[in-house]
Amino acid sequence: MLGRRNRVEPVRRSQPQSDASFDMAAYRRGTTLNSFKSDEPTQSERRRLMRLRSLRRRIAAILAVIIVLLVLGISVLSQFTGSIRGVVATNDDVKLVESDIERYTKIVDDYLSQNSFERFSFARRNTALLQFVEEQAPEISDIRIVPAGLASSNVEITVRRPVAMWIDNNGTEFVDENGVVFDRNYFSVPSIAIEDNSGVSVDGAMATSTNFLSFIGRTASALEQSEGLKVVRVVIPRGSARYVEIYLDGRNYPFKAQITRDATSQAHDIAVMTRYIDSRGIQPQYVDCRVEGKAYWK
After folding, report:
1. Considering only CA atoms, which of 217, 233, 234 is closest in space to residue 225?
2. What pLDDT, on the 0 to 100 scale, is given for residue 58?
3. 190: which DSSP letter?
4. In this structure, are strands 152-159 and 140-147 parallel, antiparallel, or unpaired?
């Protein structure tokens, strides 16, 4: 309306809204830009942490190297033969006495002293070791050095089993299935005993030579294993130095065999003649198989 003053509404000023995210409890009174310290680690603190992490990595690396070296050292020592604890025979029915153990220990020690680097198992020449031992103890057919702790080992040996024996004034000699002659026997006395009726002097006689005993052992083994025939007696006849008379189980007549022939071939000829004679019911005084591929009887 005219004459009426326009009513002026009072202007309401908006009050500044408080920041809801502002934490009044965290407000620090008297804090200025110069005195404010951030909760984040300072540069010097970060460097210190980095140095600690680097130190831990170096210590871990050193410990790893020490562990690796320790394992390698133990492994090397386990393969090193500094001393021999004992000697055992792999044959089930053989038990060594103290004097035998001392003897074989000394032989092995002598070999290792002459070949020091072979105290380590990875450098050992087993063939050379066996050859060295056989020269002094031919009754051993195999030998092994096995670890028995740090820097110590045990010795395992295999001894020969005799198939025949020879007795004279100088003692008793044995021969195994491979024709190896030895004088120390750990088994029962073999069933084949060689009888010397040759009348030849023992000294220098062919009958007492290594070749002769080797022939007897290999022939007896070939007859039993390949032909199923058992030798029970071997006789060197009078005046003979080149052949023997072999008696087989169940037969009272001998087979004459030439000792300079191959043992396997000789055993085969004897086996052929036994089958021939048995098939015809012949009862000979002896059978001569000294010539290869030929034989006759009387």
Report:
1. 217
2. 87
3. P
4. antiparallel
Note the pLDDT of residue 19. 52
End-to-end Cα distance, the chain: 175
Residue 56 pLDDT: 86
CA–CA gap between residue 42 and residue 45 (Å, rounded): 5
- The pLDDT value recorded for residue 202 is 42
Q: What is the C-alpha radius of gyration for the chain, rounded to an integer number of angstroms? A: 47
What pTM was computed for the model?
A: 0.62
Specify whether the CB–CB gap between 218 and 178 falls below 8 A.
yes
Identity of the amino acid at 176: D
Q: For residue 64, what are its two tokens? A: 């790893």
Q: What is the pLDDT of residue 203?
A: 42
Q: Produce one character per residue of 57-72: b if its CB has 16 or more CB atoms within 10 Å, e if not.
A: eeeeeeeeeeeeeeee
Contacts of 41 (CB under 8 A, 6+ apart): 49
User: What is the layout of strands, in order, in the sheet containing 243-248?
Assistant: 181-182, 171-176, 162-168, 192-196, 231-236, 243-248, 254-258, 287-288, 296-297
Q: Among 42, 234, 74, 252, which Cα is nearest to 150's? A: 74
Tally of residues, the chain: 298
Q: Tell me which residue of 227, 228, 207 sits closest to 216, measured CA to CA.
A: 207
Query: How confident is the chain (298 residues) per 10-residue block, as mean pLDDT?
Result: 50 52 51 52 76 85 85 70 86 89 92 88 87 92 86 89 78 83 88 73 48 82 85 80 83 86 87 87 85 80
Residues β-bridged to residue 88: 156
Vertex 124, ends 183 and 156: CA angle to 5°?
A: 45
DSSP letter assigned to residue 41 = P
Query: What pLDDT score does 110 carry?
Result: 92
